[in-house]
Amino acid sequence: MKRENKKKSFEKGYYKKHACDETFKCKVCGRIVTPMGAGSKHRNHCPNCLSSQHLDNEPGDREASCGGVMEPIAVWVRKNGEWAIIHRCRICGKLSSNRIAADDNPMKLMSLAMKPIGFPPFPLEKIEEMTDLMGGEGRLK
Asked: Which of 42, 51, 110, 128 has the fewest beta carbons closer than 10 A?
């Protein structure tokens, strides 16, 4: 590699405009992650466990000093219908959003999407009381 090309790869924002075609080993599940199959030129998380690593303060800057594991905590649907994963750093707590990739584990994605249904923020026994307060019938049969 030419010296000027090597220097270019460390410029701020380089990975915003250039493909991230590096293979890496997932820090959580240990799988080797390659950029092929992602459906994008910017592979930033493991397709198996959906975990990532805290590398950026701003997308593509590679300036985060933390280096912690970014665990997937939720999914959301963007206004164009595209799904994205919400990651939270286990060390510093930073939140980030990343597009899902074509080869992401569909069961893991659905598990994240269903988490609020399986673990509601209130006891299920309170549904009748809450709907009654809102003027609905809400009786459990």
From this structure: 110
| DSSP states along the chain | --HHHHHHTTSTTHHHHS-B---EE-TTT--EE-STTSSSSB--S-TTT--EE---SSTT----S---EEEEEEEEE-TTS-EEEEEEETTT--EEEEE--TTS-HHHHHHHHHHHHHS-SS-GGGHHHHHHHTT------
Spatial separation of the C-alpha atoms in residues 13 and 108, rounded to whole Å: 30
| Residues ≥6 apart with Cβ < 8 Å to 8 | 14
Q: Which of 64, 35, 137, 50 is nearest to 97 (CA)?
A: 50
Q: Do residues 73 and 93 touch, judged by C-beta distance below 8 A?
A: no
Q: Is this prediction's pTM over 0.70? A: yes
Site of tokens 């164009």: 80
